[in-house]
Amino acid sequence: MATATPTNRRGQEASAWRTAQRQFDQAADLIDLEPELRCVLREVQREFTCHFPVRMDDGRVEVFTGYRVQHNIHRGPAKGGIRYHPEVSLDEVKALAMWMTWKCAVVDIPFGGAKGGVVVDPRRLSLQELERLTRRFATEIGVLIGPERDIPAPDVNTDARVMAWIMDTVSMHTGYSVPATVTGKPVEVGGSLGRVEATGRGVAICALAAMQHLGMRPHAVRVAVQGFGNVGSVSARLLEEMGCSIVAVSDEYGGIHNPKGLPVRRLIEHREREGRLGGFPGGEEIPPDGPLTVDCDLLVPAALGNQLTSRNASEVRARLIVEGANGPTTPEADEILRDRGVFLVPDILANAGGVTVSYFEWVQDLQSFFWSEHEVNQKLRAIMQRAFQQVLATSQERHLSMRMAAYVQAVQRVAAATRERGLYPC
């Protein structure tokens, strides 16, 4: 029996959990949060670890490690994605769950924060092995998830098909279909139109709002995107449609840079065909972190966390950063970027489009009444624009960075709900 074990990310400046708690502490200081609420909100409410066996195609059994963490549920059911990655760790999942709490509060949707993950490289699994792993993990976390309790969604290396397997597994155990158990499902089984592009669309909406605030004309803006998965590729395509020039993109294997601009649709087609960006004609090949420091006006880090650190923040040339990934910037890098006058739209605001449309999907499933893609995109745009303007107003009124303004707003809302509900038992 083989065992899949977690690995530690090398060269990590700060653990994701340390970063998340440090950001919360700063916001709590700014709003003078009472000590008892600091104790409650600084920690996760539940953390669940499981080790589960999966039979592989060759008959072997491998044991995988999975996590599901709920940070806070005082504003509604827990909400958060599930990622499959060899470097998933409990600390990372705890941080992501806390960030989900703040993200839902920033855009003011009635969810709390959760996150899940399995320590696995899904590329080495067959489709059948991936399904068996997913269904077994869904069974393990079945004690926690459900439409009124905790609603998973796709994240790194998971997609609509994985969500359909989870929903079906829960439904089989329940005895009837429960489509609102997860979001990000295929439309055929209760998914929402517009969900696939939602996170990238939210990034583009925030980027445009930030450009307008800074007096930047889209046709004169050069964009670099690190990470060319769903979020990065959609963001790049929509920004190109707005008139921006995409000068650099990368995936985990490498990237392409052309200061005169790159054709995003052709890049997407190339990556779908070849499995990577490398080899695309018409540009210079760069390393995966290349877009972070190329000459550009707008940087969209849309890969994994801790990409902008004290080691490279001083080399960033962009005037504007819009975070498509969760936790791409360490606190040390934040200070450097702020001192250099870089305007940064934080992850808990910029990439909240995904959870916003997940909320729409959940509502549609509960009502069995579905909206058109145009309606979904309209509602998403209204919520993202409102949230951006509210955070910007807080930033200007209190002379805070956009990140701290977003945290202040989010922590105030969650603290208010926690305060009103009180502690049980008394």
Fold and architecture overview:
- The chain is an alpha/beta fold and 426 residues long.
- The protein has helices spanning 16-30, 35-41, 90-106, 127-140, 160-174, 198-214, 230-241, 264-274, 331-339, 347-350, 353-367, 373-398, 402-421, and strands at 2-3, 46-55, 61-72, 78-85, 112-119, 150-154, 222-226, 245-250, 255-257, 284-286, 298-301, 320-322, 343-345.
- Helices cover 43% and strands 17% of the residues.
- The strands form two sheets. A seven-stranded mixed β-sheet has the order 10-9-8-7-11-12-13. Strands 1, 2, 3, 4, 5 and 6 form a six-stranded mixed β-sheet that branches.
- The radius of gyration is 21 Å and the shape is globular.
Secondary-structure blueprint of this entry?
Blueprint: E1 2-3, H1 16-30, H2 35-41, E2 46-55, E3 61-72, E4 78-85, H3 90-106, E5 112-119, H4 127-140, E6 150-154, H5 160-174, H6 198-214, E7 222-226, H7 230-241, E8 245-250, E9 255-257, H8 264-274, E10 284-286, E11 298-301, E12 320-322, H9 331-339, E13 343-345, H10 347-350, H11 353-367, H12 373-398, H13 402-421
Helix pairs in contact: 1-3, 1-13, 3-13, 4-5, 6-7, 6-11, 6-12, 11-12, 12-13
Q: What value does the average pLDDT take? A: 94
What is the terminal-to-terminal distance?
48 Å
Unreliable residue stretches? 1-12
**Secondary structure category:** alpha/beta
**CATH-defined architecture of the domain at 198-350:** 3-Layer(aba) Sandwich
Portion in helices: 40-55%
Largest sheet: 7 strands, mixed
Radius of gyration over C-alpha positions, nearest whole angstrom = 21 Å
Widest sheet: strand ordering: 10-9-8-7-11-12-13
CATH class of the domain at 198-350: Alpha Beta
What CATH calls the topology of the domain at 198-350 is: Rossmann fold
> Which geometry do the CA atoms define?
globular
Number of DSSP strands? Answer: 13
**Residues in β-strands, percent:** 15-25%
> Helical element count?
13
